[in-house]
Design the sequence.
């Protein structure tokens, strides 16, 4: 049972797994604090004292156990919201405890929620000054396996080795060359650092190892792909492309668009499978590049598909593409979860017999039922919503993998992109279509609402349309929807002579589509929504984007939202509404938005201001292995070094046969064994 839980909840199956189950933090136990010295913003503190009172308060879901704790210097409340009975029984008076917890300031009084409590005597036996803390699940805790017990298991694992060193998985020459300690030493130090000074070297070694194997896997795969996967050759620039270019192109391409189209044309003519990431800020005209690429595929006898992350976006693409194509003889169809019954069968038949040239849709496209007659190009829009697994499935849709064009508005540093997407080429559209007036951004507070409404009214009188967006945060969904509803009611009230629509994630897709369509056609002039419109929606007549509670959005998201306006020739505006008082960081974020409209600048500021959180989530979801200790954003420098090491090793040992590298290949095999084989990471 214990083994099963460890496997399921921690991924620990073997002795080695146990040793690779690293602490997520360390607590310095060399200092015992005094209750009287507790101040705001303290991290975990160690206190030593006694319980002098305890009682259960509240009822139902509000029920909690409160214990009053003192060390003679002052009193502090310990609070439990879960396992109340157990704790109530466990806590004893006249008994000295050492407790560890994070003090909370609650209306000027400190309390410690869910502290870790230990008998002072047992605690004294712990010799470590740096105490490692391990992740545990709720289930493990219920079984009595807390961090301390995991530490014991790690300890036992070392004992089982009975003095033998843990075999290294990196060759000696590499350790020397990159100045790394042995695996054995690193594992000991990361679990039992004698002081915080020992940690950096040990973690560097372990991170390097992880990143090295990650890069080795990617590079080896790339090598294979180049050798084994020939790509379809799109030799001709034929009638579809030329007719479109000469007769239907609604505007002159920007130089950046031309450059990218040239890059793509060159790629698909080589006979090597294209794997290209197209980065371009919101509004830079990626759709046109996608369409031109599709036409190239069609000219060479292939079909193309465009995959979008949401139904609304897929519809949007369908609209843009059919509008662009006009009466050209190119058959475009839509496939989403909403396309059902007879219609669906017709589409599927057309795709299978080749009469459909371009299929646009959501992840419905990758279902096994969708078979193409001859798929040659896959365009993936806003890639970060698709996992590697989903992309890999597209590869099986033809005898050879189709060419892949991934389009994104989120700038990603190059090494990171290469790590997440394997070996890919990057194209950048670094220029917006001409005639766009930069969007004017202002930061308003509640007190400015009157001015906001005046501005909106003025734009509505000019015949323009307005978005009003509310954040939706999962934990508090109900409240958020209430906010949205209140905002909606207020707008209806203030703008009586106009029509207001609403879209949010809780609506049925059909209702959403309808609300969007009404806004697009101008039937409604104001659209109140949650972030469902975040990516890709195109309503050129909309000139105002109001973002409510803007302090609750990340910079990248604010930038995406702002990109929904400024798509026509008129001056557009983005209004960031916040509370009257916001934190310094929020203030700086608003400043960045007001000062810059450049997506790359904003992405960089975002990384600086709030760390790589967002990007990290994006990136990690595409990884071939789970990383336990390294972070591909924070450890980028080490990632580059590891990549270099991996590429040297592959060059020197292309057959994977040199005796000094045996352990490397064995370990890679072991790592891969537990993973699904995404042999074709697009
Ligand atoms: P994104 O890169 O965000 O997907 P879109 O492809 O939706 O951008 O293009 C944004 C808008 O710019 C669309 O209305 C599109 O028709 C227009 N557009 C694209 N390329 C050009 C161009 N070269 N000149 C003028 N307008 C363009
Ligand atoms: Mg787009």
Sequence:
């Amino acid at each position: 049972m214990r083994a099963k839980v460890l496997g399921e909840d921690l991924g620990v199956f073997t002795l080695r797994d146990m040793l690779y189950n690293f602490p997520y933090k360390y607590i310095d136990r060399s200092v015992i604090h005094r209750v009287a010295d507790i101040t705001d913003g303290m991290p975990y503190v160690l206190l030593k004292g006694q319980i002098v009172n305890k009682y259960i308060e509240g009822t139902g879901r509000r029920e909690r156990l409160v214990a009053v704790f003192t060390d003679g210097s002052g009193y502090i409340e310990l609070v439990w919201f879960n396992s109340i009975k157990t704790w109530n029984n466990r806590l004893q008076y006249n008994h000295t405890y050492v407790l560890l917890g994070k003090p909370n300031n609650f209306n000027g009084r400190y309390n410690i929620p869910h502290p870790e409590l230990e008998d002072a005597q047992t605690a004294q036996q712990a010799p470590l000054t740096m105490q490692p803390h391990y992740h545990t699940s709720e289930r493990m805790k219920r079984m009595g396996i807390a961090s301390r017990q995991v530490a014991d298991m790690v300890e036992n694992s070392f004992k089982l080795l009975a003095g033998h060193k843990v075999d290294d998985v990196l060759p000696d020459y590499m350790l020397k060359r990159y100045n790394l300690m042995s695996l054995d030493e690193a594992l000991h130090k990361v679990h039992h650092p004698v002081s915080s000074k020992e940690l950096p070297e040990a973690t560097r070694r372990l991170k390097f190892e992880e990143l090295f194997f990650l890069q080795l896997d990617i590079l080896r795969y790339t090598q294979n792909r180049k050798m084994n996967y020939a790509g379809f050759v799109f030799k001709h620039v034929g009638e579809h492309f030329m007719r479109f270019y000469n007769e239907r192109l609604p505007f002159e391409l920007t130089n950046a668009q031309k450059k990218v189209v040239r890059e793509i044309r060159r790629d698909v003519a080589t006979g090597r499978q294209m794997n290209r990431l197209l980065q371009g800020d919101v509004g830079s005209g990626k759709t046109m590049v996608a369409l031109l690429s599709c036409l190239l595929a069609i000219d060479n006898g292939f079909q193309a598909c465009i995959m979008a992350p949401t139904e609304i976006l897929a519809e949007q693409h369908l609209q843009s593409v059919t509008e662009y194509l006009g009466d050209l003889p190119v058959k475009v169809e839509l496939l989403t979860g909403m396309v059902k019954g007879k219609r669906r069968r017709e589409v599927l038949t057309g795709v299978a017999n080749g009469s459909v040239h371009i299929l646009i849709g959501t992840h419905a496209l990758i279902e096994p039922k969708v078979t193409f007659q001859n798929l040659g190009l896959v365009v993936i829009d806003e890639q970060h919503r698709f996992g590697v697994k989903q992309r890999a499935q597209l590869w099986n849709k033809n005898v050879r993998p189709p060419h892949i064009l991934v389009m994104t508005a989120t700038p990603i540093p190059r090494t990171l992109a290469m790590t997440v997407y394997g070996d890919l080429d990057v194209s950048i559209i670094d220029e917006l279509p001409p005639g766009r007036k930069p969007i004017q951004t202002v930061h308003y507070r509640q007190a400015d609402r009157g001015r906001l409404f005046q501005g909106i009214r003025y734009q509505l009188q000019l015949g323009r349309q307005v978005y009003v967006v509310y954040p939706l945060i999962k934990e508090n969904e109900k409240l958020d929807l209430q906010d949205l509803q209140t905002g909606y009611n207020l707008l209806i009230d203030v703008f009586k002579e106009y029509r207001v629509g609403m879209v949010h994630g809780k609506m049925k897709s059909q209702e959403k589509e309808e609300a969007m369509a009404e806004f697009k056609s101008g039937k409604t002039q104001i659209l109140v929504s949650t972030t469902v419109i975040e990516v890709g929606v195109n309503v050129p007549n909309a000139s105002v984007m109001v973002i409510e509670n803007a302090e609750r959005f990340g910079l990248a998201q604010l930038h995406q939202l702002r990109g929904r306006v400024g798509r026509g020739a008129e001056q557009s505006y983005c209004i960031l509404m916040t509370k009257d008082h916001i934190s310094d960081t929020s203030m700086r974020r608003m400043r960045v938005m007001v000062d810059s409209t450049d997506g790359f600048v904003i992405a960089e500021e975002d990384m600086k201001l709030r760390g790589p959180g967002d990007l990290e989530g994006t990136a990690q979801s595409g990884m071939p292995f789970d990383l336990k200790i390294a972070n591909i954003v924070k450890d980028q420098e080490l990632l580059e070094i590891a990549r270099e090491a991996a590429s040297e090793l592959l060059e020197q040992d292309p057959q994977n046969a040199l005796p000094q590298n045996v352990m490397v290949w064995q370990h890679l095999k072991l790592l891969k064994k537990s993973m699904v084989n995404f042999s074709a990471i697009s």
